[in-house]
């Protein structure tokens, strides 16, 4: 109901009477007033007079009411342990939704690492049910990286690049991390949880020297809603290429800052160094080493050396 009230208030620049809202929504004027109070508590500034109600401003929060145009159900939290954990429980119940949090107390990074999730960033997990073989699940990471980099480039004219295996960089500093977890049976993917964390308005470089936020780069606040909605649409558009690995891989390559670089890759207790010359259709990094020739690296931590 609150989504509908906001929709009507957004449509009108002037006041909308309580009676008009009551008739349009099929609820009492008291019911309208109660919903208005909830919206105010969420941060909406709504002016009230004898003429009715008028929306003055909306909070820069990814509330379900602000994302009404999305097809998926949105779960919003001020704080959770991890959006990945919440999304997994929903997916196991058959839901296909988006889980968003302002902060995470146990944000997940790759290899069980902690992802710093302070206020001001965008942290969400998207439940996907692609019709692909489990062996193709790695493509979701590539897809997400491409979607984030393209969206940042289009909106802010910033040269966002991709670092293997799944980071988005600006000026060689991490602005976004991506994590995908799959649940599958035999040759069927039940669901994939795609987790994305973007440093937007948080001062992340004060804590982590290798990271940066969009606000720190642009020198001004960034609307999270204006970033989030185009990003979701870009992800949805690119999903059509999950059955065309070459297309996704080629798009990733064009945005890569890893290929052509001398890199160090840490694989558990082994370290490889060489030139990153390619990634194959399985998302593996092809490394040209001086002593072992070509090495195919499926997973690891990549460090750009020069």
From TrEMBL:
InterPro entries: aa-tRNA-synth_II/BPL/LPL, ArsR-like_HTH, Bifunct_BirA, Biotin_CoA_COase_ligase, BPL_C, BPL_LPL_catalytic, HTH_11, Transcriptional_repressor_C
Record-listed biotin binding positions: 104, 174
DNA-binding region: 18-37
Record's keyword annotation contains Nucleotide-binding: yes
EC class (word): ligase
GO molecular function, one term: ATP binding
Protein name listed in UniProt: Bifunctional ligase/repressor BirA
């Amino acid at each position: 109901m609150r989504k509908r009230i906001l929709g009507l208030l957004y449509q009108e620049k002037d006041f909308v009477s309580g009676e008009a809202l009551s008739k349009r929504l099929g609820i009492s004027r008291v019911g309208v007033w109660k919903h208005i109070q909830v919206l105010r508590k969420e941060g909406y500034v709504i002016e009230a007079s004898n003429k009715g109600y008028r929306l003055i401003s909306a909070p820069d929060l990814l509330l379900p009411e602000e994302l009404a145009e999305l097809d998926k159900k949105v779960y919003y939290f001020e704080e959770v342990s991890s959006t990945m954990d919440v999304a997994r429980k929903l997916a196991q119940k058959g839901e296909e939704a988006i889980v968003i949090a302002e902060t995470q107390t146990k944000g997940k990074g790759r290899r069980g690492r902690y992802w710093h999730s302070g206020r001001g960033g965008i942290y969400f997990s998207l439940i996907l049910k692609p019709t692909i073989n489990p062996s193709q699940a790695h493509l979701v990471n590539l897809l997400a990286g491409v979607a984030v980099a393209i969206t940042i480039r289009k909106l802010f004219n910033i040269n966002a690049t991709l670092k293997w295996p799944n980071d988005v960089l600006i000026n060689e500093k991490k602005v976004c991390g991506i994590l995908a977890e799959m649940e599958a049976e035999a040759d069927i993917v039940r669901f994939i949880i795609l987790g994305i964390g973007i440093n937007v308005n948080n001062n992340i470089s004060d804590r982590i020297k290798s990271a940066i936020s969009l606000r720190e780069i642009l020198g001004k606040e960034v609307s999270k809603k204006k970033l989030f909605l185009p990003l979701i649409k870009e992800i949805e558009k690119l999903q059509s290429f999950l059955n065309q690995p070459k297309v996704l891989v080629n798009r990733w390559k064009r945005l890569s800052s890893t290929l052509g670089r001398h890199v160090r890759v840490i694989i558990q207790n082994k370290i490889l160094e060489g030139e990153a010359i390619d990634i194959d259709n399985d998302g593996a990094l092809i490394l040209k080493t001086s002593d072992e020739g070509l090495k195919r690296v499926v997973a690891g931590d990549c460090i750009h050396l020069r």
